[in-house]
Amino acid sequence: MFLDEKGEFYIRIEGRFESAHYLYEYFPDGSDEPIHGHSWKVEVYLAGKNGLRADGISYDFISAKSKLKELVDTIDHLMINDLPEFKGVNPTSENIAKWFFYGLKSSVDETGGIIQKIVIHEGPENIAYFIPGKK
Predict the structure, then answer these.
(1) How far is CA 80 from CA 15, 70, 87, 95, 122, in A?
(2) Which residues make beta-bridge pairs with 127?
(3) No. of H helices and E strands in the chain?
(4) CATH number reported for the structural domain that contains residue 25 in this entry
(5) d(CA 89, CA 60)
(6) Could you tell me if residue 1 is inside a domain?
(7) How many domains does the chain have?
(8) For a designed S-S bond to 23, which of 31, 33, 40, 70 qualifies (C-beta 3.0 to 4.6 A apart)?
(9) C-beta of residue 72 within 8 angstroms of C-beta of residue 48
(10) Helix or strand run (H / E) with residue 71
(11) Global model pTM greater than 0.90
């Protein structure tokens, strides 16, 4: 029967936002990158700490989705460099992925989940992944 199949389950939630940024000391001469904007997408891959529950749910993502929306609303339609967390921190896609992870981790942990991966889409063609705990 299909219920006897072994495997792991992952849940994916996503958010979208429009924001501008620039990278510090981007060019070889040490000058900053010009200000520019992107249509961003963040994907969060979640798993339950204890596998599949008796009700067939691996992780109830409702609270994580709500927290993700709160974070997206914080970063939407602004200059990312102006966020307090990015003062002196280069707002790369990689650092934005870690920002989302940091913002979500307590909520996800408290509700019995684990963040497996954060994916940041900087426009339709460029992607950065953050996998917690990996080097």
Answers:
(1) 16, 15, 9, 11, 13
(2) 121
(3) 2, 4
(4) 3.30.479.10
(5) 33
(6) no
(7) 1
(8) 33
(9) no
(10) helix 62-75
(11) yes
pLDDT digit string (tens) for the chain, length 135 residues: 787 788 888 999 999 999 999 999 999 999 999 999 999 999 999 999 988 888 989 999 999 999 999 999 999 999 999 999 999 999 999 999 999 999 999 999 999 999 999 999 999 999 999 999 876
Place of tokens 């981007």: 26
For residue 90, the one-letter residue type is: N
82 part of a folded domain? yes
Instruction: Copy the structure tokens of residue 5.
Output: 């199949």
Tokens of 92: 């790369």
Contact (Cβ atoms closer than 8 angstroms) between residue 108 and residue 117: no
> What's the N-to-C CA distance of the chain in angstroms?
39
Q: Is residue 14 part of a domain?
A: yes
Give the residue carrying structure tokens 């040490």. 30
Q: For residue 80, how far is the Cα from the chain centroid?
A: 15
Task: Find the domain containing 58 and state its range.
Answer: 7-130
φ and ψ at 106, to 5 degrees? -65, -45
Name the helix (H) or strand (E) containing 75: helix 62-75
